[in-house]
Amino acid sequence: MSDLKAVEKLKIEKLFGMESGYVLNFSNRTFQNFVLDNAGIDLYEDENCTDSKANRLRTFWKQESNYVVGNLLKELLEYYRISHQEAEQSEQNLWKECLNIAERLIQNNPVQNLKTSKIKEIDHSFIQEHVGKCDKKINDKDFSGAITNARSLVETILLYIESKLSGEDKKFNGDLNSLYKNVATKLNLSIDKNKKIDNSLKKIISGLFSTISGIAELGNDLGDRHGKANKNYIAERHHAILAVNSAKSFTEFIFSSYEKQNKK
After folding, report:
1. Among candidates 201, 204, 241, 243, which has minimal Cα distance to 221?
2. Backbone dihedral region for residue 48 (phi beyond 0: left; psi -120 to 50: alpha; all else: beta)
3. Which DSSP state fits 83?
4. Whole-number pLDDT of residue 97
5. Cα–Cα distance for residue pair 24/6, rounded to 1 Å
6. What is the pLDDT of residue 194?
7. Per-residue pLDDT at 171
8. Residue-level pLDDT at 121
9. Rounded to the nearest 5 degrees, what angle is found at the Cα of 133, between the Cα atoms of 186 and 111?
10. Strands (DSSP E) found in the chain
């Protein structure tokens, strides 16, 4: 669960107008879709629940990690900023305080700590959908956000394959390289252990591993996974394009390899 403090909750609730049971100007459907798109969690999964939108968000704060809560809060704040272009100064100041809250949550828990049991069924359309979201962030000039999403896509696909092949519900500890090595071994893609792989193919697979290492480091240096990007680097368009295209190529390949093995 997140460690949102009482005074922080009051600030967020005041900005979002939650005292009336609402969250900003969302309807039930648009709020459900917004949270699902940005956090991968369906707040309306329990059809018997009659809670208001505000209470569903409060429950979300109690159940999810700092990272997940912080990321959704940042997306909600961006939604607020776009829809409140003429906000009064007091509201702008409150918005900045809430943004600081979101960044604190993300920085205090930079790893998503995903559980594989939370990942639903995935196919190639899932990859295309999330690449589309990355492309949208690039078009919106949110280059660090695109890099973060690219790494998250790689993490999600690898976690999904790992859970399917092992049959175990595991938590992700943030070590992307180790996760990749585990999946590669299970898919017989490990160049050290599989002597049947052609030398030219070994070079390509070795390049894939380097790609994953690069995306992991790029996500740390240029992305916003820790609340703020590394001040020594500024994420630019070509950085984001490289990360997104690399993530797309890798996830399509690794998922196709999984599908082929799974059909045997």
Report:
1. 243
2. alpha
3. H
4. 96
5. 20
6. 59
7. 65
8. 73
9. 55
10. none
What does the pLDDT look like over 88-147, one tens digit per residue?
Answer: 999 999 999 999 999 888 776 444 444 554 556 788 998 998 899 889 889 988 888 788
- Nearest Cα residue to 223 out of 72, 107, 98, 61: 107
Model pTM above 0.70: no
Question: What does the H/E/C string look like for 111-140?
Answer: CCCCEHHHCCCCCHHHHHHHHHHHHHHHHC
Token digits for 40? 């991968």
CA 160-235-84 angle, 5° bins: 90
pLDDT band at 2 (very low <50, low <70, confident <90, very high): confident
Question: Which residues, at least 6 apart from 138, have a Cβ–Cβ distance to it below 8 Å?
Answer: 146, 237, 240, 241, 244
Go through the domains of the chain in sequence order and give each one's CATH number: 6-108 (no CATH), 117-262 (1.20.120)
Neighbours of 195 (CB within 10 A): 7
218: amino acid identity, one letter? L
| Percent of the chain clearing pLDDT 90 (strictly above) | 38
| DSSP string of 132-173, one letter each residue | HHHHHHHHTT-HHHHHHHHHHHHHHHHHHHHHHHH----B--
